[in-house]
Amino acid sequence: MERTGLFVVTHYPKDSEVSGRRLTHRSDVQLASIFVPQDPNLPPEAHFPLQTVFSPGRPPYPRFVNRFDSREMLLVVDGSCVNNGRHANKLQDPVAGCSFAFKGTPGIMPLDDGLGSIAFRLEREGPLGNPVEHTSNRAKLRAVIAALQFRAWGGEGWRRVVVLTDLEYVVLGATTWLSRWVRRRWRKKRGGGPYLNRDLWEELHHCIVELRDQGCHVSFWLVTGDRASRIIAHAKAAAQRAARSHPEAQADKFTMMCGVML
Fold first, then answer.
1. 153, 214 in Cβ contact below 8 A?
2. What angle do CA 240, 146, 257 make, to 5 degrees?
3. How far apart are CA 60 and CA 57, in angstroms?
4. Scanning 104, 126, 130, 159, which has the fewest C-beta atoms within 10 Å of its C-beta?
5. For residue 198, which phi and psi values (nearest 5 degrees)?
6. In CATH, what number is assigned to the domain containing residue 204?
7. The model's pTM
């Protein structure tokens, strides 16, 4: 029987290390790519069916594997925010939840049994220790970071990790807009103010670079509307439950979740 474990690193890297990830107009920004499905008629769960992977030195484990390229796997992410933008109640703080799925039990949808998904409340602080306002965009972006950090995906032998989401902000930000934001020194034109969530975008960029150094590229797959899959629906439900969980379930400081033998 495969043993599983989840370790939460509550003390994030030292401020000096995190601040070294800052992106300035002189930085070499490495963007992720947009995933182009080999068969656009297949829904994500059919394009990346759950398969059992066999690797030397560990028990077999399930992953969502591209049926057209066995070196590519799928991560499903989502986020949800109660009172997003304070539209429902100006005096009540928004509360967000995040989730991601990376495997499941063969024949069972992920997030039904809790064996292949992680859901958590968005932290009260960012990676630099700064207090943050919860939003839906921030929750989904945070879910991507957590999913990419959760395992050394390159160490598992994957050539590409595909992140599935229904949010254009995340997909276009990671594949197109980020380099433009950095060139503009994170300021919008004509005094429009700063671009939001800089701390998380810099953290995501660090994840993309780290995985690329492992020989594993990150791609994003945007699926919306009628094409939205059951997998995303389950991830969304998990994020909503996390957002509505008891306040004691929320961490103050930015954390890193690391899965071992999962």
1. yes
2. 105
3. 10
4. 130
5. -55, -40
6. 3.30.420.10
7. 0.91
